[in-house]
Design brief:
alpha/beta; N-utilizing Substance Protein B Homolog, Chain A; 4 domains; 4-stranded antiparallel beta sheet; globular
């Protein structure tokens, strides 16, 4: 779970003035966001926050730098298009960071001598050259060289030009798996202070190193995913591939809205597939473009989202509180754990690690009783209140509290508790590519936090009360082992009603885990 919301960006993670001079072109915004992550990743800055910061701090048409002389001033329409392109550049460059570093290392002999922002310009530009077919190569080169010259002068601008032309001369080679065989070069992005404890070559099993580079996975995460797949080749390949793909876009329809049936019917007009299709059909011509997620959710394949539903734009429906953006996996885990039982029984629900309240609000929209939301961030709690107003729902009680030290008395909660605990996020690497920079030591620390949260919340349950433990990761230490620990607590007796995780071969749905436990004594 991210530590900060996008609304906090301006007040918490400042951007250096010299980078703001680069202006608001899509490539400039992507480079600025990458540099902001370099500076503040350890403090909790996420890719979402970084993009929000650079978009609002001098990233609009009024702040074009010298590198944007050929860029026309944006009107409302192409401003939105530019922001979308900046988002794709930033997310894509992060997903492919290790891969891009390997490619650039073939073209730049001593990258560590270059300023890190210059390497970020090369990173974003090479991603655009190799993976964004609709962006003309000449525009990428011109903008990248202009940005580098604006920051560092004509000499390094010339180096960027020469490097990008060297990448072009590689032809189709970077799209071949065999290009990534061989000895690991010096990390092209060393000095960023974000990679934590990347393993040295040799720590990575020989069989997965080439695939990990091809899919842009740091060594530590590649090993974790390979272990989850049991070392089975096709399973490893499926998990690696999913981590590198653009994610599907999920929407939740507000069942309490008067327009919900109209919007739902419009969404279902498009032929939808089952929630768990088999095989990687999303990348095959004629594969699914959308799917149902539970009773009130829908997800669209990358680039296949409709402009409107029932005659209105998605953003319009969102503003009216009829739909909400929510990842398909986050919706699916509620359905798979059978938490509609809580709605039918009118059990009071406590969302104990609420974040922005998506899971608790999903139950409330369908008639559940969302009684309490707690979180360690005041801004996230304020966001829940804002969401309730947008959705036309009564606001639950809100409390600033750490779930390890609950505000509810032991043995007193007779309803359901949602524990969507902080986790390593290995199931959402496509949607949260900045997780690739998280040190492995932090994963170990998170497992301890999860254990403390789950045990503390279990002790709050009255007999018959239920706990829904959830993560968006694939590590057994954060999933099955946490459930096993709960089942062996000395002072609370629990039984596991349901255990579910996203199938390893699911081609698009985020890797989620959930367990529903009931207190019996």
């Amino acid at each position: 779970m991210p530590s900060h919301t996008a609304g906090q960006a301006s007040s918490m993670f400042g951007e250096k003035a010299r980078l703001r001079r680069l202006g608001g072109s899509p490539l400039a915004l992507a480079v600025r966001a990458l540099c902001l992550l370099d500076a503040h990743h350890a403090a909790g800055c996420t890719v979402q926050v970084a993009l929000q910061e650079v978009s609002t701090a001098g990233g609009d048409a009024s702040c074009h730098g010298k590198g944007d002389k050929r860029m026309p001033r944006n009107d409302a329409a192409n401003a939105a298009r530019d922001r979308a392109l900046a988002t794709e550049l930033t997310y894509g460059a992060l997903r492919a960071e290790r891969r891009l570093g390997w490619i650039l290392s073939k073209c730049v002999p001593a990258p560590q001598k270059l300023p890190l922002p210059l390497r970020r310009i090369l990173q974003a530009a090479v991603y655009a050259l190799l993976f964004l077919e609709r962006v003309p190569a000449h525009a990428v080169l011109h903008t990248a060289v202009s940005l580098a010259s604006n920051l560092y002068g004509a000499r390094l601008g010339g180096l960027v030009n020469a490097t990008l032309r060297s990448v072009q001369r590689l032809g189709e080679a970077p799209h071949s798996r065999s290009f990534y065989a061989g000895k690991e070069p010096v990390d092209f992005f060393a000095g960023a202070g974000a990679g934590g404890d990347r393993r040295a070559e040799g720590d990575e099993p020989e069989g997965i190193a080439e695939a990990a580079r091809f899919y842009g996975l740091p060594s530590t995460l590649a090993v974790c995913l390979a272990e989850e797949a049991g070392g089975v080749t096709e399973r490893v390949e499926a998990l690696f591939r999913r981590s590198a793909q653009r994610p599907w876009h999920g929407w939740r329809i507000n069942a309490s809205s008067p327009q919900s049936d109209e919007v739902r019917a419009s969404a279902l007009d498009t032929p939808l597939t089952d929630v768990a299709p088999q095989g990687d059909s999303s990348d095959v011509e004629g594969g699914p473009v959308s799917c149902r997620v539970g009773e009130w959710g829908v997800a669209f394949a990358p680039g296949r989202q409709p402009d409107e539903l029932a005659g209105r734009s998605l953003r319009d429906w969102e503003g009216k509180g009829v739909i909400s953006a929510q990842a398909a996996g986050s919706q699916a885990v509620l359905d798979e754990l059978g938490l509609r039982d809580w709605i039918r029984a009118q059990r009071p629900v406590w969302d104990a690690c609420a974040g922005q309240g998506g899971k608790g609000l999903a139950l409330r929209e369908q008639g559940g009783i969302l009684a309490l939301c707690t979180d360690t961030s005041r801004s996230r709690l304020e966001r829940i209140a804002h969401e309730c107003r947008r959705l036309g729902l009564p606001c639950p009680a809100l409390a600033l509290a750490d779930a390890r030290f609950p505000v509810v008395r032991p043995g007193s909660w007779s309803g359901g508790i949602i524990a969507d605990v902080p986790c390593s996020g290995l199931g959402v690497l496509a949607r949260r590519p900045d997780i690739r920079r998280r040190p492995f030591a932090e994963m170990r620390r998170l497992a301890e936090v999860q254990r403390d949260i789950a045990a503390a919340l279990a002790r709050c349950l009255a007999v018959g009360g239920e706990l829904a433990y959830m993560t968006c990761t694939l590590r057994r230490e954060e999933n099955e082992e946490q459930v096993e620990h709960l089942l062996h607590l000395p002072d609370v007796r629990l039984e596991c009603c349901t255990l579910w995780k996203t199938p390893w071969d699911h081609p698009w749905l985020e890797g989620m885990f959930g367990a529903r436990l009931r207190r019996v004594a």
